[in-house]
Structure formats: C-alpha cells, structure tokens
C-alpha cells in the first residue's frame, strides 16, 4: 500500500487507525475460503496483536508482558499483507518488537496452519479452509463516537447526531412513524419528510420526554413544527396519538400499507390498486394471477425443465428470472420473515466463498441495517470491492454479473431485479443509483437438512477501490442519515457525496477515501459509529 511508510512512526494518526479497523471490519465473518478476521477486545484472547509500538517499555503500558510473550505481535503491515493476500502471512518478518521476534514466530497463526508459511520463502497457496484469526489492536484506540456528538442532539443535520437503534422515546417515534407512513402512502411527500425530520430528532434525543419536561425541551429542537409538536404533546400526555390509533384500523391505510410490502410496489401503484377495488393481498394475488397450490397458498410458477433429445436435463444457464410483482407476491410469506443476524452472516460467507472462486482478493462489508446493529434485517446488503488498490477496479469490472450467474447456476439465487454495469461517478448525477455494479436478488441458502430455508432479498453492490468506502457509508444508512449526509456535503462543504464517490463541486475533483473514517474526515464530520446512525424509526 502506498502509505505503508507512514505507519513506521510510533504514533498512528486517526486515518491510519481507521484504516486498520476498516480492514479488519471488511473481513469479519468473511470465510472466503481462507481469511476470517475477528476483532477481539481482550489482547489475551487474540492470536495476533497489532501494534506499532517498538519498545518493551512502551508496550507494557498497554499490555502485560507475560501475555505479550505468548502472542504474535506484529506491525500494521502484517494486516495489510494478510488482507491483500487473503490468508494470514508469516508473522516473523512483521514482528513489532525485535525482542519478541521468536515468540512472535512461535505464535504465528500462519505457522499453525496445515501448511507452514513461517519460513522466509514465498508463501504457499492457502489451504481451502483456515481457522479464524483473532486480531487485537494494542495502543490503538478503537474509533469511538465522541461525547461531543452524543451531546449534539440539537444539531441541524442527522449526520451530526448520535441516533441509537432504540432511543429513550422509541414508542413516540414509532407512533409518529405511522403518521409518516400515512403521508407517504397518500403521496404527501413534503409532509412525510417533515415527519421524517421530526422522527430523526426524537431518535437522537437522549432523555425520556415527560409531561414535566416537554414544554422546555420541545421548543429547543429543530425540525419540529407546531403541528408535529402538538402530536408529540398528545402522546406524552396520553400515551397515544389518536390519529395513529385511527389509522391502524383504517381500511384504506391497511390496504395501501400491505400493498407496498410487495417488492416493486410503491405508494402510487398501491393507490391505483386500491382505486380499482383491491383491498387485500389475496385480492392482489388474484389480480396478478399468481398460481396457488392444492391448499390455496400462492406458489412460484414452475420453471419448465428443458431436456436434450437424449433425455438429459439442460442446466439452468438461460436468462435470469426477473423478480416481478407476481413473483414477489408468490414469495411474500417468505420474504416477509425477518432475517436473523447469524443467517445474514451465513449468506455473506457463502456469497464470498463463491466469489473467491471467480476472483480472489475481494473484500466485503455487510452494510444496511445489519451493520447498524439491527437484530433482524429485511434484506441483506453487501458492498464488495478488491484489496488491490491499483488494479482492483479492472479486476472487479463485470464481476457482479458473473457472480449472480454463478449463484443462479448453483440454485442460490432464484431471481434478480436489477443488474447494472459500472458507470464512473458523475458529479452531475442526482441519484446514487446506477453508478456502481449492483444486483438486487432473491437468494436461498442451500438446504442443511434441519431447517426450511426461506427465500431472502440480497443486494450486492460492487465498488471500485476509489468508491469502496463511499459505498460502505452510502449503504450503511439509515435512509435519513444518508439524506442529510448528501445535504450536508452540498450545503456546508460544496461537495457532492453519494455511494459512488465524492467530488468537490467547483472543480469536480474526485476524492479517494482510504477508509470509512476518511469519508467522515473529508466531509468535515466527526465520526459516528454505524450503530448510532439509526435515524429512521
Ligand atoms: N438507502 C438510501 N436511500 C434509499 C434506500 C436505501 O440511502 N431510498 C441506503 C440506506 C439504507 C441502505 O441503502 O440503509 C440499505 O437499504 P435497505 O432498504 O436495505 O434498508 P436497511 O438495510 O437500512 O434496513 P432493512 O433492509 O432491514 O429494511
Ligand atoms: Mg437492508
């Protein structure tokens, strides 16, 4: 890597630190036929300790010497090389302390693999499955969200505030969310956005709102106009918002909400369906002519098998089936089941193992709600890049399509909604869609003989090295965090930010952030942990 020299200095700067965490983050739970890095809080549990401290006295400030002697203690270059080569590289030549060189070699995880790679000879090909390598960083502070951000709940932009998954006023946020959905379903976008902004403020508010403090607190908050203020007061006084209670029982609201749970159906289509007399999802199944099984349950249209004249079945290599509204309806019961975290990680591992067969050296980050700490996700979003900064763009070009075809041939992907090719970041583009290689798929894990595997939504986003970290930030969300990030970049910094890159507006200069922290730095924003970017309900 081009900035390797900088890491020789005793004290790392924030960017270098962020990059190290990002490298580990990009490999977490990533079985890629070889490399699985897990960050552990306790150095005593680590296989490898990363430090740029070179002297015993300084190391002892962070780490007990007896523990140090039982570990491989390496410089940050070891991590870079390991990620680049996609398997743990021999630790000896990366030993941080000369004094502990021999202990580092003895504890080297690469040496404990079936094929020893601790000699100074070039590394052998990695064996097909390697145990996870636990990594701890010593003397390197983990990126934390500052107290300043935690206290900044009155800030104008959501990307300056800390918003936890569950906030002290969560029930209020949920109730306001009903009103927000109603405005959205009725096409009142401006009103819906007002609710989005008010909800965002409530999500970051650090104390419970009570009848005693409400008058004092509410007037100080931005984005909460008089109308919404009165709804909030109503909730704080009575525990409910009457309009939300009414909407929950309202037939039109229920129908429109149900229709929009189907992939591909937006508010406007939902209103059209309602206006022609449809009320339930069963009505919608009949309208879209979804086939049913013997018990009347919707089912997928059978794919007609094709046979050769000799009776051999022709493999599934034809055009990928599209995730139409009809298919989404047939799969609606499965697609509505939330995906637990371990299943998200299992899907990720399988996708990356398949990808490694096509192109070694890819890196990835699970983004979306999962990264923000949601216990269950509605879909799985994965940003994929390449560890080779110089040639990574070329290496992953066209890979999205190839991967989806491979997954389809293996029966792992059943449908695809959107496949697109690379487009360079365009400073004039107004939306982030179509600027990266993306595939929005339906995925099903292979049967394991124990549990029924459900069809799941999977979004794959391929990014060239210069767009990797903007894609990670852009797809981590939540939606309103992203909206305000774009607005902040434009209004406060004269920049254009989206998932596909970052440009200075006046001269279209393209930036190349090397870590997620650097994206924040370049935007002049303080770091906010992904788990504190839950700006939406
Ligand atoms: N995104 C965005 N604007 C949108 C849609 C998505 O900025 N209109 C970004 C932010 C989202 C991320 O993409 O967090 C992933 O979108 P999802 O729809 O998958 O939403 P989440 O992953 O946040 O939640 P879940 O999938 O559990 O519903
Ligand atoms: Mg998601």
TrEMBL record:
Residues 167-534 form the DNA-directed DNA polymerase X domain. DNA polymerase that functions in several pathways of DNA repair. Involved in base excision repair (BER) responsible for repair of lesions that give rise to abasic (AP) sites in DNA. Also contributes to DNA double-strand break repair by non-homologous end joining and homologous recombination. Has both template-dependent and template-independent (terminal transferase) DNA polymerase activities. Has also a 5'-deoxyribose-5-phosphate lyase (dRP lyase) activity. InterPro entries: DNA-dir_DNA_pol_X, DNA_pol_B_palm_palm, DNA_pol_lambd_fingers_domain, DNA_pol_lamdba_lyase_dom_sf, DNA_Pol_thumb_sf, DNA_pol_X, DNA_pol_X_beta-like, HHH_MUS81. Keywords: DNA damage, DNA repair, DNA replication, DNA synthesis, DNA-directed DNA polymerase, Nucleotidyltransferase, Nucleus, Transferase. The active site is at residue 231. Pfam families: DNA_pol_B_palm, DNA_pol_B_thumb, DNA_pol_lambd_f, HHH_8. Its main location: nucleus. It catalyses: DNA(n) + a 2'-deoxyribonucleoside 5'-triphosphate = DNA(n+1) + diphosphate. CDD domains: NT_POLXc. This is DNA polymerase. The keyword DNA damage applies. Its EC number is 2.7.7.7.
């Amino acid at each position: 890597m081009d900035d390797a020299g900088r890491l020789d200095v005793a004290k790392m700067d924030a960017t270098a630190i962020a990059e190290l965490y990002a490298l580990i983050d990009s490999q977490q739970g990533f079985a890629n036929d070889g490399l699985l890095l897990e960050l552990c809080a306790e150095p005593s549990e680590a296989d490898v300790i990363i430090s740029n401290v070179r002297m015993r006295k300084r190391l002892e400030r962070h780490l007990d010497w007896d523990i140090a002697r039982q570990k491989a203690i390496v410089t940050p270059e070891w991590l870079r090389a390991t990620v680049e080569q996609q398997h743990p590289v021999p630790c000896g030549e990366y030993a941080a302390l000369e004094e502990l060189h021999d202990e580092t070699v003895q504890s080297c995880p690469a040496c404990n693999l079936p094929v020893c790679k601790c000699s100074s000879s070039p590394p052998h090909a990695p064996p097909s499955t390697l145990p996870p390598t636990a990594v701890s960083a010593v003397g390197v502070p983990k990126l934390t969200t500052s107290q300043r951000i935690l206290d900044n709940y009155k800030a104008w932009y959501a990307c300056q505030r800390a918003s936890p998954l569950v906030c002290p006023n969560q029930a209020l946020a949920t109730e306001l969310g009903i009103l927000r959905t109603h405005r959205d379903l009725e096409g009142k976008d401006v009103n819906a956005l007002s609710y989005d902004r008010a909800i965002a403020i409530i999500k970051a508010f650090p104390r419970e709102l009570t009848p005693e403090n409400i008058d004092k607190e509410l007037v100080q908050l931005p984005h909460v106009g008089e109308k919404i203020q009165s709804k909030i007061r109503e909730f704080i006084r009575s525990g409910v918002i009457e309009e939300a209670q009414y909407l929950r029982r309202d037939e039109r609201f229920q129908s429109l909400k149900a229709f929009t749970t189907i992939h591909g159906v937006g508010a406007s289509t939902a209103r059209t369906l309602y206006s022609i007399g449809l009320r339930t999802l069963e009505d919608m199944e009949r309208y879209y002519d979804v086939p049913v099984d013997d018990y009347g349950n919707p089912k997928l249209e059978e794919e007609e098998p094709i046979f050769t004249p000799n009776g051999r079945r022709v493999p599934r290599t034809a055009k990928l089936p599209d995730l139409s509204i009809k298919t989404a309806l047939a799969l609606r019961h499965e697609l509505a089941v939330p995906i637990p975290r371990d299943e998200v990680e299992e899907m990720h591992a399988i996708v990356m193992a398949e990808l490694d067969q096509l192109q070694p050296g890819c890196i990835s980050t699970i983004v979306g709600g999962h990264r923000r700490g949601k216990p269950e996700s509605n879909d799985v979003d994965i940003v994929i890049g390449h560890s080779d900064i110089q040639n990574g763009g070329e290496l992953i070009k066209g890979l999205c399509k190839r991967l989806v075809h491979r997954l389809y041939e293996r029966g792992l992907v059943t449908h695809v909604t959107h496949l697109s090719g690379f487009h360079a970041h365009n400073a004039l583009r107004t939306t982030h869609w179509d600027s990266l290689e993306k595939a929005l798929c339906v995925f099903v894990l292979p049967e394991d003989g124990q549990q029924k595997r459900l069809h799941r939504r999977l979004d794959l986003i391929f990014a060239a090295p210069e767009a990797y970290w903007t894609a990670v930030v852009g797809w981590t969300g939540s939606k309103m965090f992203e909206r305000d990030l774009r607005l902040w970049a434009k209004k406060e910094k004269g920049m254009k930010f989206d998932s596909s890159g970052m440009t200075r507006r006046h001269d279209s200069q393209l930036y190349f952030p090397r870590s997620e922290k650097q994206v924040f730095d370049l935007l002049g924003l303080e770091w906010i942990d992904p788990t504190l970017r839950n700006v939406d309900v």
